[in-house]
Amino acid sequence: AQKVTQAQTEISVVEKEDVTLDCVYETRDTTYYLFWYKQPPSGELVFLIRRNSFDEQNEISGRYSWNFQKSTSSFNFTITASQVVDSAVYFCALSPNNQGGKLIFGQGTELSVKP
Amino acid sequence: DAGVTQSPTHLIKTRGQQVTLRCSPKSGHDTVSWYQQALGQGPQFIFQYYEEEERQRGNFPDRFSGHQFPNYSSELNVNALLLGDSALYLCASSLDRGRSNYGYTFGSGTRLTVV
Question: Which residues from B are below 8 Å from A89, CB to CB?
Fold first, then answer.
């Protein structure tokens, strides 16, 4: 079975706090891609990062960082020094078998950053 | 550089009716995928079109059909609408390079309400 689980439905933090969004995936494919998308109230899914299954290096982009661990099938996303503008729903997604086909999304985590 | 454009943005239909949603992909993209996102859920893959043919299909009934035109734009048709079809319908475009996954650009979606 191919599945993405985001166990945290909602998270609420105060501005400047660090927050980690969890993502656990299931696939039997050896080649796959993992994604994180941000969905603001406007509805559009905004691409944040793509990671292939052969690259386990952690990545940092400004206040955002991602921790990919194949051993635990996890691809967690951390926002450092959160800001009100980070408030949105965040989705983790799996693209199995590197075929440019469908994305399998998790249920999403709604992040609320309060001033 | 225009991103993915979807029309209409909102639509209200009566149960049993038919609906057509439209999508223009990002400039330079040749592949279009459609997703259904129910309230509070992650997007679910409906199907993908490439070279004017349906290349992949998710677990959706035949009431859901689509089309891709020579200019790469696409339509999603839903027949015999059910109340459960109420959702945000997202279009995503990508560039097919030997079927490798180079990421997707999403539109803002069409909010369909069936009454």
Answer: none
Tokens encoding A114: 């309060």
Q: Is B43 on the interface with A (CB under 8 A)?
A: yes
**CB of A31 within 8 Å of any CB in chain B?**
no
Amino acid found at B40: G
Q: Is the pLDDT of residue A98 over 70?
A: no
- Percentage of chain A beyond pLDDT 90 is 73
The whole-number pLDDT of residue A106 equals: 97
Angle at B32 between CA B38 and CA A37, to 5 degrees: 50
Instruction: List, for residues A15-68, the tens digit of each pLDDT value.
Output: 999 999 999 999 998 889 899 999 998 888 999 998 888 888 888 889 999 999
Q: Where are the beta strands (DSSP E) in B1-115?
A: 5-7, 10-13, 19-24, 31-37, 44-50, 53-57, 64-68, 74-78, 87-94, 105-106, 110-114
**Distance of alpha carbon A12 from alpha carbon A27, whole angstroms:** 30
Query: CA–CA distance from B80 to each of A79, B19, B77 (Å)?
Result: 44, 9, 10
Residue B108 has its nearest CB partner, among A42, A93, A102, at A42
Nearest to B21 by CA among B60, B79, B61: B79
The B64-68 sheet, strands edge to edge? B5-7, B19-24, B74-78, B64-68
Residue B80: closest CA among B2, B21, B13: B13
Q: Which residues of B touch A50 (CB under 8 A)?
A: 101, 103
- The reply to whether residue A101 touches residue B104, judged by beta carbons under 8 angstroms, is no
